[in-house]
Amino acid sequence: MFHAIYAGGASACFELDNTAPFYAPAPYTVLLDGQAVMEGKENVFSLYGLTPDTVYSVTLRTDGAEETLKFRTAPEPCAVSVRAFGAAGDGKTVDTAAIQRAILSLPKGGRLVFPAGTYLTGPILLKSHMTLELQAGATLRGLTDKAAYPVLPATAEDLDGGPRVHFGSFEGLPRDMYAALVTGEYAEDIAIVGPGRIDGDAQHGDWWQTFKDDPVARPRLMFLNRCKNVTVHGVDMRNAASWHLHPYYSDDIAFYDVSVSAPKDSPNTDALDPECCDGVTIVGCRFSVGDDCIAIKSGKLELARECLRPASRHTIRNCLMAFGHGAVTLGSEISGGVRDLSVSQCLFRATDRGLRIKTRRGRGRDCDIDGIAFDNIRMERVATPIVMNMWYRCVDPDGDSEYVQSRDPLPVDDRTPRLGGFRFANMDCVDAEAAACYCDGLPEQPIGSVTFENVRVRFADDAKPGVPSMFTNAPERCRMGLYFNNVRKVTLKNVAVEGHDGEAVVQTAVGEVITEGFEEKPYV
Questions:
Q1: Taking the CB of residue 71, how many other CB atoms lie within 10 A of it?
Q2: Lowest mean pLDDT among 219-223, 299-303, 342-346
Q3: pTM
Q4: Distance CA 191, CA 323 (A)
Q5: N-terminal to C-terminal alpha carbon distance within the chain
Q6: What is the pLDDT of residues 33-53, one digit of tens each?
């Protein structure tokens, strides 16, 4: 009926055992050691304020059933308040120095506690073997003055003659950057937990207005560079200057029951962008931002040639994505490729696209994307549920070049990306607008295979035209069916398209189409 997915010293997270996207089939009550502590309706819930190294009994009760399991919280050597180091938490005093002093003084494995209050701060640097706990009512709020954000160099030379050492990045390349509000560099065994908040407060500064003129990349809310074994549990993240959560060349990173939000018109405020990471788990999270909700990246060509690392072993489950450009995006900085991505039991609401793949010529032969699986997904008012775009119009200097944009077949060489196999199963997409799907491969390198099984797409009665796929001179579409161009194999099994204009399946340069149990109901 349910199981534990995380147990730290002071908090724990649980997931219901079902196949429903994000929301549980029925509401439930949670009891801790026999006492009711919360009502729930989502597939993932959390408990806070727990005592370390303690066995608890947690019960999940619905109208028709009850199940109890026991779990033990993790042991800790100590827990200390940040106020013991001089942090005021009054929303007026700048607490940066006190917070950093507390982090540096914390014993190995200790927990630094932020009681209720507003802690006004500039960037802070985490260290290995620590937990940072934001208790209920605690807010870590970023200063809005740029002068409070030191600049981290993109790289520094190794004085012993080794490869250059990387510290800063943005949009797929090493780049000088303002330090993130919360930064981890070359650290491990870290937890950031609690029901409290980390707020970049960017709406009260000028980060969103002047970023195009600044040679230094805007700060992320949290940047984890070459870190290992990091867990973020339960924290409410909001209003970053740019991306909210950016793990970079990191291993075994988990996000449980995290909320990320920013205004719909805030520029480049992606919720979570794991880049060149291995082993990323995202479960029970809620995202509503001004750009992509989750964007999986693996660098641009220069970075991939220097330190090639694909994005691998990513799991996204029981998450809610709303109002972003894409719910789950791959790219466009994806020259290292993607392996083994699983997205299941998720709910997408009013995003421009559901799955969004962005690549182009020039991303390189290591931009090899394969083993992508979507299962048990519901999309509501998603303009185009599936987009695979190998002609992405980006801001790179050569983005509008003849090489990138020519529709003629070109030689396959070390600059040519590859899209392999994709499977979409048990998907219900209601109130789509622009197109059911838009899969547009290269003539010299078609998309390998696209399989739809038990998929329904129904268009909204009031559907409005939109651009399904961003490329040069891309036309608007409205109620377009399943579009496939330059795809080697398409399999449609138990697929229904309702309310489309024109053909239900539009195909050009498709090698093979296998159809079994296809239904269509044109718009009238």
A1: 17
A2: 299-303
A3: 0.97
A4: 28
A5: 44
A6: 999 999 999 999 999 999 999
Domain with CATH 2.160.20.10 in the chain: 76-278+286-291
Question: What's the distance, CA 278 to chain centroid?
Answer: 14
pLDDT at 396: 78
95 catalytic, yes or no? no
Give the model's confidence band at 214: pLDDT under 50 very low, under 70 low, under 90 confident, else very high: confident
pLDDT at 472: 86
Q: How far is Cα 459 from Cα 456, in angstroms, rounded to an integer?
A: 10
Q: Considering the domain 76-278+286-291 in this protein, what is its CATH number?
A: 2.160.20.10
CB-count exposure of residue 428 (10 Å: 0-12, 13-18, 19+): middle
Catalytic residue among 325, 366, 440, 500: 325
Residue 524 has pLDDT above 70, yes or no: no
CATH 2.60.40.10 maps onto the chain at: 2-72
Is pLDDT of 210 > 90?
A: no
Active site residue 251: no
- Half-sphere exposure of residue 162: CA atoms within 13 angstroms, side-chain side: 6
Q: Show the CA angle centred on residue 222, arms to residues 320 and 252, nearest 5°.
A: 75
Name the residue among 343, 353, 342, 356 with its Cα closest to residue 379.
Answer: 353
Q: How far apart are CA 441 and CA 432, in angstroms?
A: 22
Q: Which of 352, 358, 316, 305 is nearest to 333 (CA)?
A: 358
The catalytic position among 95, 199, 270, 291 is: 291
Choosing among 3.40.50.1110, 3.40.1280.10, 2.60.40.10, 3.30.70.2860, the CATH entry for 2-72 is: 2.60.40.10
Name the residue type at position 123: P
The secondary structure of 171-229, three-state, reads CCEECCEECCCEEEECCEEEEEECCCEEECCHHHCCHHHHHHHCCCECCCCEEEECCEE
> Which residues does residue 519 pair with via DSSP β-bridges, in sequence order?
496
Q: Is 405 exposed, middle or buried (0-12, 13-18, 19+ CB in 10 A)?
A: middle
- Give the integer Cα–Cα distance in Å for 400 and 396: 8
Residue 192: both structure tokens together = 């950031």
